[in-house]
Amino acid sequence: MERENNRGQRVRLSITARRVRIEPGKKRRSYIRRLERVMRTCDGIVADPETPEGVKVKALAVLIRAVKVCYDIVTDVEVELIEEQAEEIRRALEARRRRSQEPSRG
Fold this sequence. Notes:
Elements: E1 2-4, E2 10-12, H1 24-47, H2 53-101
Antiparallel strand pairs: 1-2
Helix pairs in contact: 1-2
């Protein structure tokens, strides 16, 4: 794209779109596997008849939180995706500002 600036000089702008592959599904699967390990561990602690009551209560609390996080994970991944997109935009603007501050060649 070409334009004339306010000094009558021609300025050429070239934009190259960079492809970024964001894989929230892969990250989601990783989170789920980690949470499943936590849930199995807590389930084993709760099921063990030799586990003291206080420890069982703490393990149940963690188990409940893990189940809740599994349901909330979609939202978390979506937030991460939005954050990554916003960061890309911020970096592009920053690069544009740096380029605009470079001394003109000519």
